[in-house]
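2024-03-11 09:14:02 DEBUG pipeline.ingest accepted 1 chain
2024-03-11 09:14:02 DEBUG pipeline.ingest length=181
2024-03-11 09:14:03 DEBUG pipeline.predict start
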Amino acid sequence: MRGSERVFLANTAFELPARCGADLQHAGQVAVFANARTAVSALDAGEKGWTGSFNTAFQSGAIMGFSLCGLSLFVLYSMCLIYRDAFTVIVDEVRYINYIALFETISGFGLGGSCIALFGRVGGGIFTKAADVGADLSGKVIGLGDGKKLDEDSPYNPPPPPSLLLPLPMSLLYTPSVDNS
């Protein structure tokens, strides 16, 4: 196999999981709807509210997690089967597969998936920070309407959740425990 063909296959191995991850984020609107269902189930009094909201959040997170893992394993297995034929040489009716070159080329798969996750994480943080700044400014500029301005951390001036602001459900990638805003 020529070097240009290996470069093309390595590029495809990088690009395919990145595209799958981005497409799955569009399908991840399940998480946005689950945020609302979790909030509604938390309105129930007592332990019933906590149990219902936890179960709703856990089940919707499991849907997204299993979808992502299942799709990535399917794509990785399919790529290995297709690439195996590309790295096969038949000599005297004996099939030789260059597994070292095959897996060097496939190694771009993990890098592509990690790359889109990193950019999604950074994008989610940027939108979350913008929402926080917007809430702070609205409290300082607009206030309560009677001329009284709101403090930055006032409970009357909550920032909107990131999932309501984003075209993609980047709130999946937002981790409040890591946020140091």
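2024-03-11 09:14:41 DEBUG pipeline.report The beta strands are 88-91, 94-97.
2024-03-11 09:14:41 DEBUG pipeline.predict end
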